[in-house]
Amino acid sequence: MGWTNQLLVQILTLILLYIILLVLRMISKNNWPTWIHPLDVLLPLLIVFSAIALSAVSVRPLFLWAVIVWLIVGVGVVWRTFRGRQLVAYRTFLLIYWRFSDIVWLIIYVLAIIGTIFH
After folding, report:
1. What is d(CA 20, CA 42) in angstroms, rounded to the nearest whole number?
2. Whose CA is closest to 111, among 57, 41, 73?
3. pLDDT at 18
4. What's residue 88's pLDDT?
5. I need a labelling partner for 18 at 20 to 30 A (CA). Which of 35, 49, 75, 107 fits?
6. pLDDT for position 19
7. How far is CA 21 from CA 74, 98, 109, in A?
8. DSSP assignment, residue 49?
9. How far apart are CA 57 and CA 78, in angstroms?
10. CA distances from 114 to 42, 70, 75, 107 (A)
11. H or E element that contains 92
């Protein structure tokens, strides 16, 4: 029962922060960078919440495997970005890597939540 309450608080925290960031983005259109999505800001919190949720699923080092998957995706993004190019726009590369990180950690977090529910 304790883990489900903690996970519920995590999910509600992420949703609330996402809504707050969306509202801030709409209010300050001139000051908010157009290339930054509210999910980009939540990535560090999503990684921490994923570590907590993965520790609830099992005592095995699932967070280690999640980081390995994240690094493999990072290597894929690097290979895809640098393939055939001599020069790379680092701003574009970092944005693509950060977005793929958003997607990977969101999937890991959702799978950890599902694993905790059915555990």
Report:
1. 11
2. 57
3. 92
4. 65
5. 75
6. 94
7. 26, 17, 20
8. H
9. 31
10. 20, 19, 27, 11
11. helix 90-118
* Host H or E run for residue 111: helix 90-118
Give the other-Cβ count within 10 Å of 109's Cβ. Answer: 23
Q: For residue 57, what are its two tokens?
A: 């699923």
59 or 21: whose pLDDT is higher? 21
pLDDT band at 85 (very low <50, low <70, confident <90, very high): low
- For the cut 60, the answer to whether the pLDDT of residue 37 exceeds it is yes
Domain map of the chain by residue range?
Answer: 2-118
> pTM for the complete prediction?
0.80
For the chain, how many residues are written? 119
Match 């890597």 to its residue by tokens: 97
Helix, coil or strand: residue 13: helix
How far is residue 58's CA from residue 77's CA, in Å, rounded to a whole number? 30
Residue type (1 letter), 35: W
Angle, in degrees to the nearest 10, between helices 90-118 and 43-57: 30
Of 113, 102, 1, nearest to 42 (Cα)?
102
What distance in Å separates the CA atoms of residue 81 and residue 90, rounded to the nearest whole number? 10
